[in-house]
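U., I forgot to send this yesterday:
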Amino acid sequence: MHLAGPSELIAARVLPAPAPLTSRGLRLRITLGPAQDLLSALANARADLVVSAVRPTGWGITATPLTDEEFVLVGSPALARTIDPGRLGEDPVGAARASAAGRLRGGSADHPALLAQ
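Result:
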């Protein structure tokens, strides 16, 4: 079986499940990478199963949600004191960006993040 997905999730949550079956003959091939590449591999029959944080659309693939992810905004106490609490409830990312002007860095399309310098 050719299994594909993001490295953190595959290593921590997915691989332990089929691992005992390898002693009974299951052969696993693992591919790690960005969601769009892995979904493309699935759509083109280069992978058997993909675990993805990105819901496939327009690929002709049926998906079953496994869980919802919850993200939290984490910052230093000094940064937190500069954020407008009223705006934080309405637009946490915008509030953090406004208070940390020039000190935030973005993530990638597969791993969005805000990191304060």
